Amino acid sequence: MNRANKPSQRFVHWPARPDSTTRQGLPEAAAERRGTTAGLAGTAPAPIATRRAPLPAAVPGPSRCLPRRSGLDSDAVRRAMVDRLRQQGDYDERVLQALLAVPRHHFVEPALAAQAYLDNALPIGHEQTISKPSVIARGLDAALRMLAPRQTLGKVLDIGTGCGYAAAVTARIADDVYSVERIRALHDLARANLRALRVPNLRLLLGDGMAGCPAGAPFDVIISAAAALEPPQAWLDQLAIGGVLVAPLGDPQQLVLLRKRGTTRFEVQSIEGAKFVPLKSGLK
Ligand code: SAH
C-alpha cells in the first residue's frame, strides 16, 4: 500500500448514531432491504471442487499462457504487474504472492487478455467489471493487517463474485471463501473460469449478498466488491467478534475497514476514496 494511501482516519464508531447498530434499531433502509432480499438461509453451499490439495505456485495448463495470438508470456507479464505493485506500496507479501499465483487473463474475454495485467478494471459483461488488482490488494492487505498476528484471513464471505478473480486471489490467503453473486450469468461464468484452476477452499453461491450467507456464518472477514450507502445488517450480524468488513460505503464512496468489537459495537476506518459498482438487491 502506498504510504500516502494508508488509512488516514482514526477509528470512529459505525454508524455515527450508536442506536442504529442494534438489532432493534436497524436503520430504516437496511430494514427495508432485509425484507426484499432473497436470502441464502438453509442452503448448503457446495464446494466448487472437492480436492483439498493446495494450488501449485504457478497454475499449469491453459492458464499459463495468453491466447497464442497475443504474443505475450502470461507468467512474465503477471510478474511485472506484481513487481509494479510492490514498488508502488508496501502491500503484504502474501497478497502479492496471491496475485502472482492467479492468472487474471483467464478471467477476461480473450480480446481483453492483453490488458489483463494492467492495473485496470475491465468489463466482464452485464455492466459489471473485474476489479483493479491494486484495489483488491489494498482491501486484502488492510484485512490481513487488522487480523495480525493471524496468518490467514480465516473464513471469508466475498460479496459480488463477478468473474471469480478476486475470490480466487482471496482463497490463496484464506482458509475458506464463500463467494456470492446475484447475476446468474456471472455466477455461471465464474464457475466456468474457476473449474480449471481447482480452488478447493472456494464455494460459489448464487444469491443476494445483502443477506450475507447465514449457512456459513460467522465470518472472520467479509469483503464486498459492490458499494452500498451503509452495510446491510446481515453483514454486521454475520461477522465474528473481532472480524473485519472491507467494503465500499457511503456517498461519496469510501473503501471502509470496519471491525466488530462486540455484538453491537463497531469501529470504522476509511482506507481511500472508491468507485465500485452498486450493491443491488434480488437475483437477476
Ligand atoms: N470481485 C469481482 C468484481 C465484480 S463487480 C471480480 O473479481 O470480478 C461486483 C459484483 O457484485 C458484480 O458482479 C455484481 O453483480 C455483484 N453484486 C452487486 N450486488 C450484489 C448482491 N446484492 N449480491 C451479490 N452480488 C452482488
Keywords:
7 helices; 26% helix; disordered N terminus; Rossmann fold; binds S-adenosyl-L-homocysteine; single chain; 8-stranded mixed β-sheet; 284 residues; alpha/beta; globular; two-stranded antiparallel sheet
Q: Can you tell me about this structure?
A:
With 284 residues, the protein is an alpha/beta fold. The protein has a domain at 36-43 and 126-273: 3-Layer(aba) Sandwich (Rossmann fold), CATH 3.40.50.150. Helix content is 26%, strand content 23%. Strands 1-11-10-9-7-4-5-6 form an 8-stranded mixed β-sheet. A two-stranded antiparallel ribbon has the order 2-3. The chain has a two-stranded parallel ribbon with strand order 8-12. Helix 2 (74-88) runs antiparallel to helix 3 (93-101). The chain is globular and about 50 Å long. 46% of the residues are buried. Bound molecules: S-adenosyl-L-homocysteine (SAH). The site of S-adenosyl-L-homocysteine (SAH) has 25 residues, from strand 3, helix 5 and strand 5.
Q: What does the average pLDDT come to?
A: 82
Query: Tell me, what is the CATH class of the domain at 36-43 and 126-273?
Result: Alpha Beta
**Percentage beta strand:** 15-25%
Helix content: 25-40%
User: CATH homologous superfamily of the domain at 36-43 and 126-273, by name?
Assistant: Vaccinia Virus protein VP39
Bound small-molecule species: S-adenosyl-L-homocysteine
Gyration radius (Cα, Å) is 18 Å
Task: Please write the string of helix (H) and strand (E) elements.
Answer: EHHHEEHEHEHEEEHEEEE
Helix/sheet category: alpha/beta
Distance between the termini: 35 Å
Low-confidence stretches: 1-65
- Number of DSSP strands? 12
Shape: globular
What is the oligomer described by this structure? Answer: single chain
Largest sheet: 8 strands, mixed
Count of discrete alpha- or pi-helical segments spanning 4 or more residues: 7
Q: How does CATH name the architecture of the domain at 36-43 and 126-273?
A: 3-Layer(aba) Sandwich
User: CATH topology of the domain at 36-43 and 126-273, which one?
Assistant: Rossmann fold
Strand arrangement in the largest pleated sheet: 1-11-10-9-7-4-5-6
